[in-house]
Predict the structure.
Amino acid sequence: MRTDLKTNAYSLPMPVMLAAAYSEDDTPSVMVVTWGGICTKYLDKIALNIDSFHKTARAISERMAFTVSVPDASHWKTVDYIGSVSGDDVPDKFTRSGLHAVRSRYVDAPVITDFPVSLECRVIDIAIHDMMRVTGQVINVSAEYSLLNDTDGIDALLYDNLRNSYISSGRVLGYAEKFRVR
Ligand SMILES: Cc1cc2nc3c(=O)[nH]c(=O)nc-3n(C[C@H](O)[C@H](O)[C@H](O)COP(=O)(O)O)c2cc1C
């Protein structure tokens, strides 16, 4: 039997992204973003839908740059901490999270080195709707070298917004025929 749910733009599962930018004191400010993703045909731009009051949102607007890290599933508790606590309340949130960062060589933003992939982005547009929609041009992508030849790929962290739970990307079922390399 089917039932109607509360109206909600469910897209299951959602990617878990960690958006990071330098705050005023030059320390990394980081937040969890699940409302976002690829927003152009050429795969070179990413959109984040974020509330403008977040410390990281202000940092992104001021520096006009940010990174997006794709966390692996094993880091879910760290990610949950980052998404539950504001750097406005806990100024050393990044240090407390146990994560590490280096400055991007391409944009004025921190690359978190604990995660397998980082998109280094320059802000090309900020639109204010009910949220702040930040569009970033991906300038560089850095990845953990050892993963490039790993046939299992990245066990990426995902978010199930029906159950408000973290899940892992799990096992490969098959490959998309349309995008098969011939
Ligand atoms: C699973 C999860 C997903 C989230 N997705 C978003 C999002 O897409 N947009 C947003 O503005 N906040 C989102 N948040 C909330 C922020 O990550 C959170 O408020 C964070 O503490 C802000 O940190 P800051 O104030 O230090 O920047 C999410 C939180 C969690 C736990």
